[in-house]
Design goal:
Among the domains are: 174 residues, 3-Layer(bba) Sandwich (FAD/NAD(P)-binding domain), CATH 3.50.50; 62 residues, Rieske [2Fe-2S] iron-sulphur domain (Rieske Iron-sulfur Protein, 3-layer Sandwich). The chain has 10 helices and 25 strands. 28% of the residues lie in helices and 29% in strands. The protein has 499 residues and is α+β, with helices and mostly antiparallel strands.
Protein backbone atom coordinates (compact mmCIF):
# COMPACT_ATOMS: atom_id res chain seq x y z
CA UNK A 1 0.00 0.00 0.00
CA UNK A 2 1.11 3.62 -0.50
CA UNK A 3 3.23 5.28 2.17
CA UNK A 4 1.25 7.50 4.59
CA UNK A 5 1.93 11.23 4.54
CA UNK A 6 2.42 13.50 7.52
CA UNK A 7 -0.97 15.08 6.81
CA UNK A 8 -2.67 11.71 7.24
CA UNK A 9 -0.56 10.59 10.19
CA UNK A 10 -1.26 13.78 12.16
CA UNK A 11 -5.07 13.73 11.80
CA UNK A 12 -7.85 11.28 12.63
CA UNK A 13 -10.58 10.23 10.23
CA UNK A 14 -14.09 11.57 10.76
CA UNK A 15 -17.04 9.27 11.23
CA UNK A 16 -20.56 10.10 10.08
CA UNK A 17 -23.91 8.38 10.72
CA UNK A 18 -24.66 5.72 8.08
CA UNK A 19 -27.22 6.59 5.41
CA UNK A 20 -29.25 3.52 4.50
CA UNK A 21 -31.57 5.22 1.99
CA UNK A 22 -29.74 8.22 0.50
CA UNK A 23 -32.26 11.08 0.19
CA UNK A 24 -32.51 13.38 -2.81
CA UNK A 25 -30.23 16.42 -2.73
CA UNK A 26 -29.66 19.56 -4.75
CA UNK A 27 -26.03 18.64 -5.54
CA UNK A 28 -24.09 15.37 -5.39
CA UNK A 29 -20.34 15.96 -5.12
CA UNK A 30 -18.15 13.01 -6.10
CA UNK A 31 -14.71 13.11 -4.51
CA UNK A 32 -13.60 14.09 -1.02
CA UNK A 33 -10.43 16.01 -1.81
CA UNK A 34 -9.84 19.75 -1.67
CA UNK A 35 -12.01 20.55 -4.70
CA UNK A 36 -14.90 18.33 -3.66
CA UNK A 37 -14.99 19.28 0.02
CA UNK A 38 -14.60 23.00 -0.69
CA UNK A 39 -17.37 22.86 -3.29
CA UNK A 40 -19.69 20.92 -0.98
CA UNK A 41 -19.05 23.33 1.91
CA UNK A 42 -19.67 26.45 -0.18
CA UNK A 43 -22.88 25.06 -1.68
CA UNK A 44 -24.13 24.10 1.77
CA UNK A 45 -23.39 27.65 2.95
CA UNK A 46 -25.35 28.92 -0.05
CA UNK A 47 -28.46 27.07 1.11
CA UNK A 48 -28.21 23.91 -1.01
CA UNK A 49 -28.50 20.34 0.20
CA UNK A 50 -25.41 18.36 -0.67
CA UNK A 51 -24.25 14.73 -0.73
CA UNK A 52 -20.46 14.46 -0.48
CA UNK A 53 -19.37 11.01 -1.66
CA UNK A 54 -15.85 9.67 -1.12
CA UNK A 55 -14.72 6.16 -2.04
CA UNK A 56 -12.04 6.00 0.67
CA UNK A 57 -10.90 8.60 3.25
CA UNK A 58 -11.71 12.28 3.20
CA UNK A 59 -8.67 14.26 2.03
CA UNK A 60 -6.77 10.99 1.94
CA UNK A 61 -5.91 10.70 -1.75
CA UNK A 62 -4.08 13.27 -3.83
CA UNK A 63 -4.97 16.05 -1.40
CA UNK A 64 -3.49 14.08 1.48
CA UNK A 65 -0.20 13.61 -0.36
CA UNK A 66 0.68 17.18 -1.25
CA UNK A 67 3.39 19.58 -0.11
CA UNK A 68 0.56 22.01 0.75
CA UNK A 69 1.91 25.29 -0.57
CA UNK A 70 -0.59 28.10 -1.03
CA UNK A 71 0.96 30.40 -3.57
CA UNK A 72 0.10 32.21 -6.77
CA UNK A 73 3.70 31.62 -7.86
CA UNK A 74 3.55 28.49 -9.97
CA UNK A 75 7.14 28.07 -11.14
CA UNK A 76 7.43 30.07 -14.41
CA UNK A 77 3.78 30.07 -15.44
CA UNK A 78 3.36 33.82 -15.98
CA UNK A 79 5.89 34.05 -18.76
CA UNK A 80 4.38 30.97 -20.37
CA UNK A 81 0.81 32.27 -20.13
CA UNK A 82 1.79 35.70 -21.40
CA UNK A 83 3.56 34.15 -24.37
CA UNK A 84 0.64 31.84 -25.25
CA UNK A 85 -2.41 33.94 -24.40
CA UNK A 86 -1.36 37.47 -23.48
CA UNK A 87 -0.87 39.47 -20.31
CA UNK A 88 -4.58 39.71 -19.48
CA UNK A 89 -4.81 35.91 -19.09
CA UNK A 90 -1.67 35.86 -16.95
CA UNK A 91 -3.12 38.61 -14.75
CA UNK A 92 -6.50 36.86 -14.40
CA UNK A 93 -4.79 33.61 -13.48
CA UNK A 94 -2.70 35.23 -10.77
CA UNK A 95 -5.62 37.17 -9.30
CA UNK A 96 -7.75 34.02 -9.14
CA UNK A 97 -5.03 32.12 -7.27
CA UNK A 98 -4.61 34.94 -4.75
CA UNK A 99 -8.38 35.05 -4.27
CA UNK A 100 -8.41 31.36 -3.29
CA UNK A 101 -5.52 31.75 -0.83
CA UNK A 102 -7.08 34.78 0.84
CA UNK A 103 -10.40 32.92 1.19
CA UNK A 104 -8.75 30.08 3.12
CA UNK A 105 -7.10 32.56 5.47
CA UNK A 106 -10.33 34.48 6.10
CA UNK A 107 -12.60 31.45 6.38
CA UNK A 108 -10.32 29.47 8.69
CA UNK A 109 -10.07 32.51 10.98
CA UNK A 110 -13.84 33.04 10.89
CA UNK A 111 -14.47 29.39 11.78
CA UNK A 112 -11.80 29.38 14.46
CA UNK A 113 -10.02 26.42 12.88
CA UNK A 114 -6.28 26.11 13.56
CA UNK A 115 -4.72 24.87 10.32
CA UNK A 116 -1.07 25.97 10.79
CA UNK A 117 -1.66 28.77 8.31
CA UNK A 118 1.63 30.66 7.93
CA UNK A 119 2.41 33.53 5.60
CA UNK A 120 5.74 32.92 3.85
CA UNK A 121 7.59 34.28 0.83
CA UNK A 122 7.67 31.90 -2.12
CA UNK A 123 10.73 31.46 -4.35
CA UNK A 124 11.33 29.94 -7.78
CA UNK A 125 15.10 29.54 -7.93
CA UNK A 126 17.85 28.41 -10.26
CA UNK A 127 21.44 27.34 -9.68
CA UNK A 128 22.80 27.45 -13.24
CA UNK A 129 23.92 30.95 -14.33
CA UNK A 130 22.35 30.52 -17.77
CA UNK A 131 18.90 30.15 -16.18
CA UNK A 132 18.96 33.47 -14.33
CA UNK A 133 17.86 35.51 -17.35
CA UNK A 134 14.72 33.39 -17.67
CA UNK A 135 13.90 34.16 -14.07
CA UNK A 136 14.45 37.88 -14.59
CA UNK A 137 11.94 37.70 -17.42
CA UNK A 138 9.48 35.76 -15.27
CA UNK A 139 9.80 38.34 -12.49
CA UNK A 140 9.05 41.19 -14.92
CA UNK A 141 6.01 39.48 -16.45
CA UNK A 142 4.64 38.44 -13.08
CA UNK A 143 4.99 42.01 -11.81
CA UNK A 144 3.20 43.27 -14.93
CA UNK A 145 0.48 40.73 -14.10
CA UNK A 146 0.02 42.42 -10.71
CA UNK A 147 1.81 39.74 -8.69
CA UNK A 148 4.07 40.74 -5.73
CA UNK A 149 7.14 39.67 -7.71
CA UNK A 150 10.79 40.64 -7.81
CA UNK A 151 14.11 39.11 -8.85
CA UNK A 152 16.73 38.43 -6.16
CA UNK A 153 20.26 37.07 -6.28
CA UNK A 154 20.36 35.62 -2.76
CA UNK A 155 18.06 33.45 -0.65
CA UNK A 156 18.19 31.79 2.77
CA UNK A 157 18.87 28.39 1.21
CA UNK A 158 22.09 26.78 2.47
CA UNK A 159 23.54 26.63 -1.05
CA UNK A 160 24.23 29.28 -3.69
CA UNK A 161 21.72 30.18 -6.39
CA UNK A 162 22.15 32.13 -9.60
CA UNK A 163 18.88 33.91 -8.98
CA UNK A 164 15.28 33.57 -7.87
CA UNK A 165 11.86 35.07 -8.39
CA UNK A 166 10.28 35.84 -5.04
CA UNK A 167 6.55 36.39 -4.42
CA UNK A 168 5.98 38.02 -1.05
CA UNK A 169 3.25 37.12 1.44
CA UNK A 170 2.28 33.68 0.14
CA UNK A 171 1.26 30.89 2.53
CA UNK A 172 1.49 27.27 3.68
CA UNK A 173 -0.90 25.24 5.84
CA UNK A 174 -2.12 21.84 7.03
CA UNK A 175 -4.58 20.83 4.26
CA UNK A 176 -6.24 17.84 5.88
CA UNK A 177 -6.94 19.59 9.16
CA UNK A 178 -8.62 22.36 7.16
CA UNK A 179 -10.69 20.07 4.97
CA UNK A 180 -11.90 17.83 7.78
CA UNK A 181 -13.19 20.96 9.51
CA UNK A 182 -15.12 21.89 6.37
CA UNK A 183 -16.48 18.35 5.91
CA UNK A 184 -17.84 18.36 9.47
CA UNK A 185 -19.86 21.44 8.54
CA UNK A 186 -21.27 19.82 5.40
CA UNK A 187 -23.06 17.04 7.26
CA UNK A 188 -26.53 17.78 8.63
CA UNK A 189 -29.66 19.79 7.79
CA UNK A 190 -30.50 17.66 4.76
CA UNK A 191 -26.89 17.27 3.63
CA UNK A 192 -24.72 14.25 4.31
CA UNK A 193 -21.23 12.82 3.87
CA UNK A 194 -20.61 9.26 2.68
CA UNK A 195 -17.14 7.76 3.08
CA UNK A 196 -16.11 4.32 1.87
CA UNK A 197 -18.80 4.62 -0.82
CA UNK A 198 -17.83 4.42 -4.47
CA UNK A 199 -19.80 6.01 -7.31
CA UNK A 200 -20.35 3.38 -10.00
CA UNK A 201 -22.61 5.06 -12.52
CA UNK A 202 -24.04 8.39 -13.62
CA UNK A 203 -27.28 8.94 -15.50
CA UNK A 204 -27.69 12.51 -16.67
CA UNK A 205 -31.23 13.82 -16.62
CA UNK A 206 -33.62 15.96 -14.62
CA UNK A 207 -32.71 14.99 -11.99
CA UNK A 208 -29.38 13.22 -12.44
CA UNK A 209 -28.99 9.81 -10.80
CA UNK A 210 -25.68 8.73 -9.28
CA UNK A 211 -25.36 4.99 -8.72
CA UNK A 212 -23.20 4.12 -5.73
CA UNK A 213 -22.31 1.12 -3.63
CA UNK A 214 -24.72 2.54 -1.02
CA UNK A 215 -27.63 2.96 -3.42
CA UNK A 216 -28.92 5.51 -5.91
CA UNK A 217 -28.73 9.25 -5.24
CA UNK A 218 -30.89 11.73 -7.13
CA UNK A 219 -29.55 15.25 -7.53
CA UNK A 220 -30.31 18.31 -9.63
CA UNK A 221 -26.57 18.80 -10.20
CA UNK A 222 -23.50 16.55 -9.99
CA UNK A 223 -19.91 17.68 -9.45
CA UNK A 224 -17.15 15.27 -10.50
CA UNK A 225 -14.11 16.16 -8.37
CA UNK A 226 -12.33 12.79 -8.33
CA UNK A 227 -8.90 14.06 -9.44
CA UNK A 228 -9.08 12.23 -12.77
CA UNK A 229 -12.74 12.49 -13.79
CA UNK A 230 -14.62 9.20 -13.57
CA UNK A 231 -17.35 8.40 -16.12
CA UNK A 232 -15.18 10.35 -18.58
CA UNK A 233 -17.59 11.90 -21.06
CA UNK A 234 -15.41 14.87 -21.85
CA UNK A 235 -12.41 12.95 -23.19
CA UNK A 236 -10.28 14.12 -20.27
CA UNK A 237 -8.14 10.98 -20.33
CA UNK A 238 -6.64 12.23 -23.60
CA UNK A 239 -6.28 15.82 -22.36
CA UNK A 240 -4.48 15.27 -19.07
CA UNK A 241 -0.92 14.14 -18.37
CA UNK A 242 -0.41 12.14 -15.13
CA UNK A 243 2.79 13.01 -13.26
CA UNK A 244 4.13 12.05 -9.88
CA UNK A 245 6.67 13.53 -7.48
CA UNK A 246 8.18 12.03 -4.35
CA UNK A 247 8.23 13.78 -0.96
CA UNK A 248 10.40 13.08 2.07
CA UNK A 249 9.75 14.72 5.44
CA UNK A 250 12.82 15.04 7.65
CA UNK A 251 13.00 16.01 11.32
CA UNK A 252 14.84 19.29 11.98
CA UNK A 253 15.13 21.74 14.85
CA UNK A 254 12.72 24.60 15.46
CA UNK A 255 15.18 27.16 14.06
CA UNK A 256 16.55 25.03 11.23
CA UNK A 257 15.49 24.98 7.61
CA UNK A 258 14.67 27.85 5.25
CA UNK A 259 12.08 30.45 6.18
CA UNK A 260 10.43 30.55 2.77
CA UNK A 261 8.92 28.07 0.33
CA UNK A 262 11.02 27.07 -2.66
CA UNK A 263 10.82 25.33 -6.00
CA UNK A 264 13.67 24.78 -8.45
CA UNK A 265 12.85 25.71 -12.05
CA UNK A 266 15.57 23.31 -13.22
CA UNK A 267 14.88 19.99 -11.46
CA UNK A 268 11.65 20.99 -9.64
CA UNK A 269 12.93 20.21 -6.16
CA UNK A 270 10.31 21.58 -3.74
CA UNK A 271 11.23 22.80 -0.25
CA UNK A 272 9.22 24.01 2.76
CA UNK A 273 9.00 23.40 6.51
CA UNK A 274 6.08 22.28 8.68
CA UNK A 275 5.48 23.26 12.33
CA UNK A 276 5.11 20.37 14.79
CA UNK A 277 3.18 20.33 18.07
CA UNK A 278 6.40 20.01 20.10
CA UNK A 279 7.90 23.16 18.60
CA UNK A 280 10.22 21.35 16.19
CA UNK A 281 9.68 21.37 12.45
CA UNK A 282 9.69 18.99 9.53
CA UNK A 283 11.61 19.76 6.38
CA UNK A 284 9.56 18.72 3.33
CA UNK A 285 11.63 18.05 0.23
CA UNK A 286 9.95 17.02 -3.01
CA UNK A 287 11.42 15.97 -6.33
CA UNK A 288 12.26 13.05 -8.62
CA UNK A 289 9.27 13.83 -10.82
CA UNK A 290 8.27 11.35 -13.50
CA UNK A 291 5.23 10.09 -15.35
CA UNK A 292 2.98 7.78 -13.33
CA UNK A 293 3.78 4.14 -14.09
CA UNK A 294 7.00 4.87 -15.96
CA UNK A 295 9.52 2.02 -16.12
CA UNK A 296 11.64 3.28 -13.25
CA UNK A 297 12.58 2.22 -9.73
CA UNK A 298 10.60 4.42 -7.36
CA UNK A 299 12.53 2.97 -4.42
CA UNK A 300 15.78 4.17 -5.99
CA UNK A 301 14.23 7.58 -6.62
CA UNK A 302 13.31 7.83 -2.93
CA UNK A 303 16.93 7.09 -2.02
CA UNK A 304 18.14 9.70 -4.47
CA UNK A 305 15.82 12.32 -2.97
CA UNK A 306 16.92 11.49 0.57
CA UNK A 307 20.56 11.80 -0.52
CA UNK A 308 19.85 15.22 -2.07
CA UNK A 309 18.20 16.43 1.18
CA UNK A 310 21.11 15.17 3.27
CA UNK A 311 23.67 16.74 0.96
CA UNK A 312 21.97 20.14 0.77
CA UNK A 313 20.52 20.47 4.29
CA UNK A 314 22.35 17.90 6.42
CA UNK A 315 18.96 16.39 7.29
CA UNK A 316 19.00 12.59 7.47
CA UNK A 317 16.20 11.63 9.88
CA UNK A 318 13.37 10.65 7.51
CA UNK A 319 10.09 10.71 9.42
CA UNK A 320 7.68 10.27 6.49
CA UNK A 321 7.78 9.79 2.78
CA UNK A 322 5.02 9.77 0.22
CA UNK A 323 4.08 10.17 -3.42
CA UNK A 324 2.30 13.24 -4.82
CA UNK A 325 0.21 12.90 -7.97
CA UNK A 326 -0.73 15.60 -10.42
CA UNK A 327 -2.68 15.95 -13.65
CA UNK A 328 -1.62 18.69 -16.04
CA UNK A 329 -3.46 20.21 -18.99
CA UNK A 330 -1.72 21.04 -22.24
CA UNK A 331 -2.26 24.80 -21.81
CA UNK A 332 -1.43 24.78 -18.06
CA UNK A 333 -4.89 26.06 -17.06
CA UNK A 334 -7.16 23.77 -15.00
CA UNK A 335 -10.50 22.48 -16.24
CA UNK A 336 -13.28 23.87 -14.03
CA UNK A 337 -16.82 24.00 -15.35
CA UNK A 338 -19.14 21.94 -17.52
CA UNK A 339 -18.35 18.24 -17.74
CA UNK A 340 -19.01 18.26 -21.48
CA UNK A 341 -20.48 20.79 -23.96
CA UNK A 342 -24.02 19.36 -23.90
CA UNK A 343 -24.57 19.38 -20.14
CA UNK A 344 -25.97 22.04 -17.83
CA UNK A 345 -26.16 19.80 -14.77
CA UNK A 346 -22.83 17.97 -14.50
CA UNK A 347 -19.65 19.83 -13.55
CA UNK A 348 -15.98 18.93 -13.29
CA UNK A 349 -12.78 20.16 -11.65
CA UNK A 350 -9.44 18.65 -12.68
CA UNK A 351 -6.03 19.36 -14.20
CA UNK A 352 -4.57 21.42 -11.34
CA UNK A 353 -0.98 20.66 -12.31
CA UNK A 354 1.34 20.82 -9.31
CA UNK A 355 -0.79 23.48 -7.62
CA UNK A 356 -3.88 21.77 -6.31
CA UNK A 357 -4.20 23.68 -3.04
CA UNK A 358 -4.99 27.03 -4.65
CA UNK A 359 -6.60 25.59 -7.79
CA UNK A 360 -8.74 23.13 -5.83
CA UNK A 361 -10.01 25.95 -3.61
CA UNK A 362 -10.60 28.13 -6.64
CA UNK A 363 -12.61 25.27 -8.15
CA UNK A 364 -14.98 25.32 -5.18
CA UNK A 365 -15.47 29.08 -5.43
CA UNK A 366 -16.09 28.98 -9.18
CA UNK A 367 -18.35 25.91 -9.19
CA UNK A 368 -20.47 27.42 -6.43
CA UNK A 369 -21.13 30.42 -8.65
CA UNK A 370 -21.79 28.36 -11.77
CA UNK A 371 -24.29 26.10 -10.01
CA UNK A 372 -26.09 28.93 -8.21
CA UNK A 373 -26.27 31.01 -11.39
CA UNK A 374 -23.96 33.79 -10.24
CA UNK A 375 -21.86 35.55 -12.86
CA UNK A 376 -18.15 34.85 -12.49
CA UNK A 377 -15.61 36.50 -14.82
CA UNK A 378 -13.27 33.51 -14.44
CA UNK A 379 -15.70 31.02 -16.01
CA UNK A 380 -14.33 31.41 -19.54
CA UNK A 381 -10.68 31.17 -18.46
CA UNK A 382 -11.13 27.73 -16.88
CA UNK A 383 -13.95 26.39 -19.06
CA UNK A 384 -13.19 22.70 -19.86
CA UNK A 385 -14.74 23.16 -23.30
CA UNK A 386 -12.45 26.08 -24.21
CA UNK A 387 -10.80 26.09 -27.61
CA UNK A 388 -7.04 26.04 -27.02
CA UNK A 389 -6.15 23.33 -29.50
CA UNK A 390 -3.70 25.41 -31.53
CA UNK A 391 -1.85 26.72 -28.50
CA UNK A 392 -1.48 23.26 -26.94
CA UNK A 393 -1.38 20.92 -29.95
CA UNK A 394 2.30 20.00 -29.63
CA UNK A 395 2.03 18.90 -25.99
CA UNK A 396 -1.27 17.10 -26.72
CA UNK A 397 0.35 15.09 -29.49
CA UNK A 398 3.41 14.30 -27.38
CA UNK A 399 1.26 13.03 -24.51
CA UNK A 400 -0.97 10.83 -26.63
CA UNK A 401 1.96 9.60 -28.70
CA UNK A 402 3.50 8.37 -25.45
CA UNK A 403 0.26 6.57 -24.56
CA UNK A 404 0.15 4.84 -27.94
CA UNK A 405 3.77 3.75 -27.64
CA UNK A 406 3.17 2.33 -24.15
CA UNK A 407 -0.04 0.59 -25.20
CA UNK A 408 1.80 -1.30 -27.94
CA UNK A 409 5.27 -1.59 -26.42
CA UNK A 410 4.14 -2.97 -23.07
CA UNK A 411 2.41 -5.84 -24.78
CA UNK A 412 5.57 -6.84 -26.55
CA UNK A 413 7.44 -6.62 -23.25
CA UNK A 414 4.84 -8.73 -21.44
CA UNK A 415 5.05 -11.46 -24.06
CA UNK A 416 8.77 -11.84 -23.47
CA UNK A 417 9.00 -11.36 -19.71
CA UNK A 418 8.90 -15.00 -18.53
CA UNK A 419 6.79 -16.58 -15.80
CA UNK A 420 6.22 -16.15 -12.07
CA UNK A 421 9.29 -18.19 -11.06
CA UNK A 422 11.40 -15.09 -11.60
CA UNK A 423 9.38 -12.96 -9.18
CA UNK A 424 11.55 -12.55 -6.08
CA UNK A 425 10.08 -12.09 -2.56
CA UNK A 426 9.04 -8.49 -1.92
CA UNK A 427 8.87 -7.68 -5.62
CA UNK A 428 6.35 -7.63 -8.44
CA UNK A 429 6.45 -7.74 -12.20
CA UNK A 430 4.23 -8.29 -15.22
CA UNK A 431 4.63 -11.82 -16.53
CA UNK A 432 2.89 -13.97 -19.09
CA UNK A 433 0.82 -17.10 -18.88
CA UNK A 434 -0.20 -18.19 -22.32
CA UNK A 435 -1.71 -15.10 -23.90
CA UNK A 436 -2.52 -13.45 -20.58
CA UNK A 437 -0.47 -10.65 -19.01
CA UNK A 438 -0.38 -11.14 -15.23
CA UNK A 439 0.61 -8.65 -12.54
CA UNK A 440 2.36 -10.94 -10.05
CA UNK A 441 3.59 -9.99 -6.59
CA UNK A 442 5.42 -12.28 -4.15
CA UNK A 443 5.46 -11.23 -0.48
CA UNK A 444 8.32 -11.74 1.96
CA UNK A 445 6.93 -15.17 2.94
CA UNK A 446 6.84 -16.32 -0.66
CA UNK A 447 3.06 -16.08 -1.17
CA UNK A 448 2.10 -15.08 -4.71
CA UNK A 449 -0.73 -12.66 -5.51
CA UNK A 450 -1.83 -12.47 -9.13
CA UNK A 451 -4.20 -10.05 -10.83
CA UNK A 452 -4.77 -9.10 -14.45
CA UNK A 453 -2.13 -6.67 -15.67
CA UNK A 454 -4.65 -5.00 -17.98
CA UNK A 455 -5.81 -1.64 -16.59
CA UNK A 456 -9.60 -1.58 -16.35
CA UNK A 457 -9.75 1.93 -17.78
CA UNK A 458 -8.67 1.40 -21.40
CA UNK A 459 -6.56 -1.76 -21.29
CA UNK A 460 -2.98 -0.51 -21.01
CA UNK A 461 -0.66 -2.70 -18.96
CA UNK A 462 0.28 -1.71 -15.43
CA UNK A 463 3.80 -1.67 -14.00
CA UNK A 464 5.03 -2.46 -10.48
CA UNK A 465 5.86 0.52 -8.26
CA UNK A 466 8.61 -0.79 -6.00
CA UNK A 467 8.56 2.29 -3.75
CA UNK A 468 4.85 2.15 -2.90
CA UNK A 469 4.09 -1.52 -3.73
CA UNK A 470 1.26 -0.67 -6.09
CA UNK A 471 0.36 -1.38 -9.71
CA UNK A 472 0.46 1.85 -11.74
CA UNK A 473 -0.74 2.58 -15.27
CA UNK A 474 1.31 5.16 -17.13
CA UNK A 475 -1.23 5.67 -19.92
CA UNK A 476 -3.71 7.72 -17.89
CA UNK A 477 -2.52 7.46 -14.29
CA UNK A 478 -4.74 4.79 -12.69
CA UNK A 479 -3.24 3.07 -9.66
CA UNK A 480 -4.17 -0.18 -7.94
CA UNK A 481 -3.33 -1.96 -4.70
CA UNK A 482 -1.59 -5.34 -4.82
CA UNK A 483 -4.97 -7.08 -4.58
CA UNK A 484 -6.19 -5.11 -7.60
CA UNK A 485 -8.47 -2.66 -5.76
CA UNK A 486 -8.60 0.85 -7.21
CA UNK A 487 -6.45 3.46 -5.48
CA UNK A 488 -6.73 6.17 -8.09
CA UNK A 489 -8.72 6.70 -11.29
CA UNK A 490 -9.69 7.16 -14.00
CA UNK A 491 -10.28 3.40 -13.54
CA UNK A 492 -13.33 2.62 -11.40
CA UNK A 493 -13.16 -1.19 -11.52
CA UNK A 494 -10.48 -3.31 -9.81
CA UNK A 495 -7.93 -5.44 -11.62
CA UNK A 496 -9.37 -8.93 -12.04
CA UNK A 497 -7.98 -11.44 -9.50
CA UNK A 498 -6.35 -14.52 -10.98
CA UNK A 499 -5.74 -17.92 -9.39
Amino acid sequence: MPNPSYWLASTSDLSFPPVTQPPDVDVAVLGGGIAGITTAYLLKQSGHTVALIEADRLAGGVTGHTTAKLTSQHAQIYGQLESSFGLDVARAYGESQALAIDWIERESAALGVHVDFERRDSYAYAEAPETADRLRHEARVAADAARPSRFVSETDLPFPVSGAVVFSDQAQFHPRRWLLALAERVHGDGSYVLTGVRATGLNEGDPCVVETTAGSIRAAHVVVATHHPIFDRGGFFARLEPRTDLVVALAIGADDGPGGMYISVEDRHSIRTVPMSDGARLLLVGGEGHRVGAHTSVAERYRSLEHWAAERFGARDVAYRWMAHDLSTADMLPFIGRYHPATRRVWVATGFGHWGMSNGTLAGLLLRDLITGEENPLAGLYDPTRATVLQSARRFLQTNGYVTARFLGDRVGALTSGGTDGVEPGTGRVVRSGRRAIAAYRDADGRLTQVSARCTHLGCLVTFNDGEHTWDCSCHGSRFALDGSVLEGPAVRPLRPLP
